[in-house]
Amino acid sequence: MRAVAHRPTPPPAWQPRTDPAPLLPDAEPHRLLGTDAMAGADPELLLSLYDRLVLGRRFNTQATALTKQGRLAVYPSSTGQEACQVAAALALERRDWLFPSYRDTLAAVTRGMDPVRVLTLLRGDWHTGYDPYEHRVAPLSTPLATQLPHAVGLAHAARLKGDDVVALALVGDGGTSEGDFHEALNFAAVWRAPVVFLVQNNGFAISVPLAKQTAAPSLAHKAVGYGMPGRLVDGNDAPAVHQVVSEALARARSGGGPTLIEAVTYRIEAHTNADDATRYREEPEVELWRRHDPILLLERELTGRGLLDEDRRRSAADAAEAMAAELRERMNADPVLDPMDLFAHVYAEKTGQLREQSELLRAELTAEGETR
Description:
By secondary structure, the chain is of the alpha/beta class. 44% of the residues lie in helices and 8% in strands. Strands 1-2-3-7-6 form a five-stranded parallel β-sheet, sandwiched between helices. The relative contact order is 0.15. This is Pyruvate dehydrogenase E1 component subunit alpha.
């Protein structure tokens, strides 16, 4: 049998289009608190982060209480991971867009939105209780990761139009197991869209720990497969999150393309008020993370630098309590709702199916009114 001459492979289309080494995240999460790098930190930014974290913690506890009082149908608390949302939202410019998940109510509030309007979806009144264009905050997304392709689409369109806009898309570790996550990152990298993906890795997708979702060294490592940088940051270190997100936003704005950031944090509370977290995790694990609380970490830094005294602590706490009191009062008032509004903001022009459904509901409401 005659031997077949070896033929070299065709031009190496399989090879990486970019050098993967610069895309790899650091071996350990990036930190600032307690390091020498804090010497050059902006005191005003640090105090603003502190005030927002204190307000955010009170927002979480108040919203959780409202679920127990029947004023909210459900609430996914972000207690313990407030630094991810506060620091990321503060890094945005007013012209930028935020694409939140259902747990990112605090990011929307930090963006300047009315807390009652932010909670409208979770109250069950409207699909979205606010005008997304007013604050450039997309609707809270309850389906996992569906907001990510939307963020890429907006960012890509902005770039095509020449608008100086960056989209920041927030997602949890559970969302990285969805196909939308893959599609969004792939499109973003190919198009070099000005979008930043921030994964809040809080340890669990409801009851599923991260180790049962992925075998990757970290979620940030997934960035390399798409051709974008991956960054790993301590999600409870507010200044570090702000720095990493700000750098990624600047990179995207200058035409450098997308970045995937993994913020390592922890979900102190249950997945929602309907979840029993004691069935899948032990209290000693939770207690360890309580000691790594983002507010305590920042308080320690600010106190050590002489930036935080009792008056400033009291001022932040009083402002947070005033917010909570107003939120309670307004949420205790029953809203006046028109069921026909269900069809008002679905399409610019109603489809035939929507018209049929709306007329059916109108007839049922009329009949119900006549029988009372």
